[in-house]
Amino acid sequence: MLSHIVAVIPLFAGSYGAYLEQRQATTSSSSTSVPQYFQTTPEIYAGPTPTGRAPFLAQSNPAPFGTSRSFIANAPLETALPIAGDTTNSSIFHLMGQLSPYFPNPSGFGVNEYPLPPGANITLVNTLHRHGSRYPTTNASAEKFGKTLTGLIHAHTVNFTGALSFLNTWSYQLGDEILVPVGRQELFDSGVLHYYDYGHLYNTSTKIIARTTTQDRMLKSAEYFMAGFFGLEWTNNATLEVIIEQPYFNDTLAGYFQCNNSNLPVATGGTNASIIWEKEYLQNATARFNAITSGIEWNTSTVYAFQTLCPYETVAFGYSAICDLFTYQEWEGFEYSIDLSFAGNNYFQSPTGKAVGIGYVQEFLARIQNHVLTTGGTQANLTLDGNPSTFPTNQTLYFDFSHDTNMAAILTAFNLTQFAPTLPTNEIDTGRSLIVSHLQPFGARVDIEIIKTPKPVCASRSEAHYEEGEPTTYIHFIINQACLRFKLPFLP
Ligand SMILES: *[C@@H]1O[C@H](CO)[C@@H](O)[C@H](O)[C@H]1NC(C)=O
Ligand SMILES: *[C@@H]1O[C@H](CO)[C@@H](O)[C@H](O)[C@H]1NC(C)=O
Ligand SMILES: *[C@@H]1O[C@H](CO)[C@@H](O)[C@H](O)[C@H]1NC(C)=O
Ligand SMILES: *[C@@H]1O[C@H](CO)[C@@H](O)[C@H](O)[C@H]1NC(C)=O
Ligand SMILES: *[C@@H]1O[C@H](CO)[C@@H](O)[C@H](O)[C@H]1NC(C)=O
Ligand SMILES: *[C@@H]1O[C@H](CO)[C@@H](O)[C@H](O)[C@H]1NC(C)=O
Ligand SMILES: *[C@@H]1O[C@H](CO)[C@@H](O)[C@H](O)[C@H]1NC(C)=O
Ligand SMILES: *[C@@H]1O[C@H](CO)[C@@H](O)[C@H](O)[C@H]1NC(C)=O
Ligand SMILES: *[C@@H]1O[C@H](CO)[C@@H](O)[C@H](O)[C@H]1NC(C)=O
Ligand SMILES: *[C@@H]1O[C@H](CO)[C@@H](O)[C@H](O)[C@H]1NC(C)=O
Ligand SMILES: *[C@@H]1O[C@H](CO)[C@@H](O)[C@H](O)[C@H]1NC(C)=O
Ligand SMILES: *[C@@H]1O[C@H](CO)[C@@H](O)[C@H](O)[C@H]1NC(C)=O
């Protein structure tokens, strides 16, 4: 079996290496110093262990995916909040853009959902996955505001009454960057779901390579996913390739670090648009808060940072008292502020969106055409991508882990023009396709399936399955369990 073990990419820092060695030591050796009753591997008295056939739900599911499904959602958090103006019992946690905990796309992307036609085979799946729910970014506005507010509260320079009274004893207690518990669960659950969908594509006598980045939440997201997909002994089945995520390193899973302009004001048009909209939709809330606050004056910018703490506190603590201070309409406004931000910073209105994402598109095309990547000029790390031991092209399952904005840039580089229309900043465009909570919530996933059919599939699926013609290969895009319209100029 050792011949299947591919060397893990050497890393620049020692801490990760030590971590990995430890993990390998616990999974591959039976230390005699550990008493039997504390020993977990190798197992003894494990009982019978035969397994059944690997599922292939993505191919065998007779039902369409789509809306009005009855499904079992694992929802451990007590978040059944009374939200003013929520007349339809809708969840505000589905209106939080990239800060929404994972939920399947509720409305589809304007495409009818059908099962695979008979005789069609899924031959490959390429999954691009976001990390799970996390703490805020170090020193971003949410954290800065939270710490400033805490300082004012402790200094008694501010007092609150009414709905804001709880703030008199509130303090900012979030960490930075790393996964929170539900974030681990999102990735584990997704691994489980992906096994149901695609387990059949895994050849049990091989070991696949899956890619993530060096960031703690990225590495751990990949590990939780693998544990969900393969089980706790996943290191027998997959090797994680951990690509350096640091400024000026080439990494298609964090492409902005190789695109200087994407980190300059030229690429913040979305942020600017969002600020214009925040001033509009948060006027009422700002007035409400000022009426019950003494010592400071709220403005739309501080109210926005405060609203942003609701999703972060919720996933960190299970409940946040900040959420129901805002009306349903103000949560719709919050979602739209994030949609504007992504549209201008990462999707089609961004001058650097496609540039950040194009390296991953190159990698995807290379994989499905079974060759390593040798032409550069993008974020791809050709040292890794030019070598089949670090860029294998013989897998039927590819798992990559990335970030929200990077995934948005990749979808833009794939030229998914349904997300291209410019959004107005003075009112919500209710007909838009670009809804970030449907695209890049925590734990988001883009599954790209290669499907081979015996004949061309009918454009109108309501009648016959196939037209007359030759065997045909299709690419099927699925984002967060909903099908996407997609046209690629060429196929393998
Ligand atoms: C919302 O939920 C409440 C309590 O379950 C129920 O009485 C009410 O009919 C629901 N309203 C709608 C519009 O579904
Ligand atoms: C965050 O801000 C603090 C205080 O301004 C600073 O000391 C620290 O280096 C910053 N951290 C990062 C990661 O930027
Ligand atoms: C599974 O992998 C083994 C070892 O590489 C190979 O011999 C076998 O043909 C593969 N099976 C299938 C169905 O691809
Ligand atoms: C993982 O690999 C082991 C050892 O090759 C194999 O026995 C097991 O079935 C694999 N797990 C899955 C979920 O296929
Ligand atoms: C490419 O990846 C290798 C292995 O991690 C690393 O040593 C090298 O610095 C990377 N090159 C660039 C340009 O990022
Ligand atoms: C990006 O910025 C770094 C640091 O200033 C610089 O070394 C590098 O040459 C720049 N890259 C490009 C393509 O301009
Ligand atoms: C603000 O309040 C006015 C008056 O009640 C209302 O018409 C408007 O819809 C509210 N706007 C938002 C964004 O809540
Ligand atoms: C806040 O309340 C405290 C205690 O009642 C009082 O001493 C302080 O002056 C108040 N501060 C403001 C800004 O109202
Ligand atoms: C890294 O990216 C730069 C700029 O896109 C490219 O010129 C260079 O060849 C790449 N380096 C590697 C090792 O892939
Ligand atoms: C791909 O090919 C390499 C080298 O021959 C082999 O070690 C590996 O097991 C193969 N992977 C799969 C998934 O077949
Ligand atoms: C992107 O799609 C649009 C609309 O289909 C098309 O006009 C344009 O040429 C495409 N761009 C690229 C780079 O393929
Ligand atoms: C689908 O797979 C079956 C079983 O391996 C094979 O007989 C059939 O030819 C395949 N169909 C296509 C369209 O590739």
From TrEMBL:
Q: What is its EC number?
A: 3.1.3.8
Cite the entry's keywords alphabetically. Disulfide bond, Glycoprotein, Hydrolase, Signal
Which positions form S-S bridges? 310-323
Q: Which Gene3D superfamilies does this entry report, sorted A to Z?
A: Phosphoglycerate mutase-like
Q: Name one GO molecular function term.
A: acid phosphatase activity
The secretion signal range is 1-17
Task: State if Signal is listed as a keyword.
Answer: yes
- The annotated active site, in chain numbering, is 131, 404
Q: Which family does it belong to?
A: Belongs to the histidine acid phosphatase family.
What name does this protein carry?
3-phytase
Recorded source organism is Heterodermia speciosa
Q: What is the lineage of its organism?
A: Eukaryota, Fungi, Dikarya, Ascomycota, Pezizomycotina
